[in-house]
Every structure is written in C-alpha cells, then in structure tokens.
Amino acid sequence: MTDLTRLTAAELAERLTAREVTSVEATQAHLDRIDAVEPAVHAFLHVADTEALATAADVDARRAAGEELHPLAGVPIAVKDVVVTRGLPTTAGSRILEGWVPPYDATLVERIKAAGLPILGKTNMDEFAMGSSTEHSGYGNTHNPWDLERIPGGSGGGSAAAVAAYEAPLAIGTDTGGSIRQPAAVTGTVGVKPTYGSVSRYGLVALASSLDQAGPCTRTVLDSALLHELIGGHDPRDSTSLTDPATGYVAAAREGAAGDLRGVRVGVIRELQGEGYQPGVIARFEESLDALRTAGADIVEVSCPSFAYALAAYYLILPAEASSNLAKFDGMRFGLRVEPSEGPVTAERVMAATRGQGFGDEVKRRIILGTYALSAGYYDAYYGSAQKVRTLIQRDFAAAFEQTDVLVSPTAPTTAFKLGEKLDDPLAMYLNDVATIPANLAGVPGMSLPNGLSDDGLPVGFQILAPAREDARLYRVGAALEALLETSWEGPLLGRAPELAGGAA
What we know:
Keywords: ATP-binding, Hydrolase, Ligase, Nucleotide-binding, Protein biosynthesis, Transferase. By secondary structure, this protein is of the alpha/beta class. The protein has two domains: about 5-305 and about 390-505, Amidase signature (AS) domain (Amidase signature (AS) enzymes, Alpha-Beta Complex), CATH 3.90.1300; about 310-390, no CATH class. It has 16 helices and eleven strands. The protein has helices spanning about 10-15, 25-40, 50-65, 105-115, 155-165, 180-185, 220-230, 250-255, 280-295, 310-325, 345-360, 360-375, 380-405, 425-430, 435-440, 470-485; strands at about 45, 75-80, 120-125, 170-175, 190-195, 215-220, 265-270, 300, 405-410, 445-455, 460-465. An eleven-stranded mixed sheet has the order 1-3-2-4-6-5-10-11-9-7-8, sandwiched between helices. Strand 10 (about 445-455) and strand 11 (about 460-465) form a beta hairpin. The two termini are about 15 Å apart.
C-alpha cells in the first residue's frame, strides 16, 4: 500500500478527488507519522488530532455527497504558531503567550478552513519570529530531519522540518527576513515569500509590520503554487493588502515543468556570492545555472551595490518595528502576568516582571536595539538612515529588473550548522539571512527550492526573486529548475525520507 505521507500535496489531492483514498486516512497517516518522529524532530508545539480528523471526516462526507470541493480539500496542513487560530493555542514560540487560545482566525486560516484542509497543528518557531535557527523558541529546539544535531533554519524551522520529515505535505510559514526561504534551503524543501501585501497579514502576530509576509512551505514548486493561490488575494481587514487576485501561479508552475525557459532573462546577483559562501553551496549554484542555460535561459550578471548594506539596515528597521509591536505584551490584558515578589504591585512593576520573565534573550536584545534606534536624538541617525538604505535597495532591484525577468542567488551562505554553534555570536547568526533580507526590504517575492546536496551531504537552496506582483515568474522558473534537477540528487522530492534517529524514518 502506498505510504500517503510520501505523496506530494498535488498527488494526494488527485487521489482524494478520485476517491481512491479518504481524507481521514490521509490525515491519520500524517498524525501517525507525527507520533513516530516528533520525539526526535520536535516540529510541533501543538498537535490538533481531534480537530484535524473532524475536518477530514466532514470533507469525506461532503465529497461522498457529490459536493464540489476545493482542489486541496482534505489535504492536511501545518500552521506556524505565529498565525492566530481560533480554538487552538497560539504562542508565537514565546512563554509570554503560553496557553493563549485566540477567539478568532487569521484570514489565511479562514481560507484554509473554508477550503477543507485539516489543520494538523501549530509548528515551532523562534520566539516572535526572531531568529535563524529555531533555537530561540520558548519551548525547545526543533531538529533538522537531515541531521538531528543541526538546526532546521529559522524562524520557521518547525514548518520546514515538518514538511521535510513527512509529518505534513503542506505548511504555512512567515518570512520577515528569510524565515520561510532559509529554513527551506537547509531542510531540502520549497519555501515562498509572496509579494508584500499579496497574502493578508490579518491575524499574524506582528514582528515587523512593513516586512512580515506569510507564505507556503512544501516539498514541490507545484504544491507551493496550489497553496499560494488558496491563501492569497485581497483582504479589506489588512490595510496593506493588494487588490490583485492570487491567480496564475499553478498555471505558471505547470508551464515551467516542461523545462522550456527560452527567452527568460536570469540575472545573477554579483553581491550575493563569493566570500563567506560555502564551496559546496557555490558549486550547486553554478550547476543550477548550467541547468537553466540548458533550458534556454539567458544568464547575465547584475550588480546591486546597495545590497551590501541590507543586513545593517534590516537590523535597525526590524528591531524598531518589533519594539513598537511587542509593547502590547505588558502582562495586563492577555498572556503571562508576573507580579513582583516583593514591594508594591504597580502597573510598571508588573510590566517589568512579566516582560523580564516572559521574553527570551534574543527578543530582549532586539527590543533594546529597536527602542534605542527610535529614541530622541538617534531616530534620524539610525532608523531614518536605514530607511534611506531601504530606498536604495528598492532602486537596485528596479534597475536589475529592467535587464532581467528574475534574479537568482544561493538562498543561504552555508548548509545547516550544528545546534548551539552560533548562539553566542548573534552577528554570525544574523549573517545567515544576508541573501534573503533584500527581498523583504523591497517587498518583492522570493522562492527557495532545493538544488542538491553540498559536500557535507546536507541540502542547499537556490533562490529566485521576481518583481513585485510577478510571483508567477518564480513558479515558472522554479518548476523548470526543479524538473531539470529532479533526478540529480536524492532529496525529499524523490520520496526518500531524511534519516531520523532510531530508525524512525
């Protein structure tokens, strides 16, 4: 019998539609997989088995009654714990929200539920999405299914690990500076950051409101396209929401899978390679460029000089916005409340005690940075200057896209590093996002897809960037490269499970 957890979302959807398998069977298979590997991986903070099976049973009954359903109806999905879910805990990976059960759903969760996708549970993450390794979660580390002693990326390591470990065929992540794409790169999965505003932010626990964007985590480009079309589109409850319909992504992926890229201009970003990039990462990148040439793409080098300042600008803009957004967690209205052990119980002392105990070190570090950058006398010098650099980065993108259809680079400079290896060096940790941050500062869409294994046997990611509102280009080029590389490496795309401790795979 076919192992349902090894099917892609598209394959599983086809079998469900043909009534060759039921959603209850598919959902139970993934819940069984979660039971088997979670002690080793720890991708989930909460498993919603009862709710998922109830949704699956409802979908099966509606399908049996002849009701016309969404193409993904009955396909299980996991949701990053920064996305609000009614009736299920939402902690954003923080002790300060421990036990909080929201009274409403995020817009993208509403759309997932309306389409009939059973939600398997909420995935682990760096606290409030601050981190590149999922080591800053208030609830323990997530482990990379390829090597359990290594990080799964961050902040959305739980979603990426769940997909890589065959615990879920689909997952939702959020990307503020690479938190979908970098985990995808180090776990051998596909991750997409849509154009800013094309997927509603209503119901996301905000980190940096001008940068945050939800998107798909999957094992294939087509699966990401299917999920992207489901969750995307205008939402009047999000003031930054674009009015563009979320269409054309699936068609672009199917077109790209034919492997014909004649006439497509691919720009290689000079500043996102070279020093600091692992030799195996560069080798796989060059091989992927050769594959794109074989498909007829025109490969050119472009320069985006302001990208050299993206990391510095980002780590002023993000902490500043985080300092403002996280002010609401004060121990007064919801979540954790800690009263001082002695002395008067005042609002100020309760707030200090709650935030001191409830926030982790990385969150405190960024709140301090952001508050300083916004303080009187420093606003123009730091936050204001960073926003000017952001404008220069946007101009670099605009100039590059005048010469090209898409831009490409390695997704991350290295493969997954060992747990604990960079915890004492925040700058070394931040450098993992050097290639992904520019897209968030400019609001353009980006994709990471696996393009082989480095010399250390770990997955490598290939990043594709497109102009704002041209997300379909990601899917065409990404699907073409995926098809060209599909037989050249033994990753999850070929149904081979990553190694897990104790023979759990």
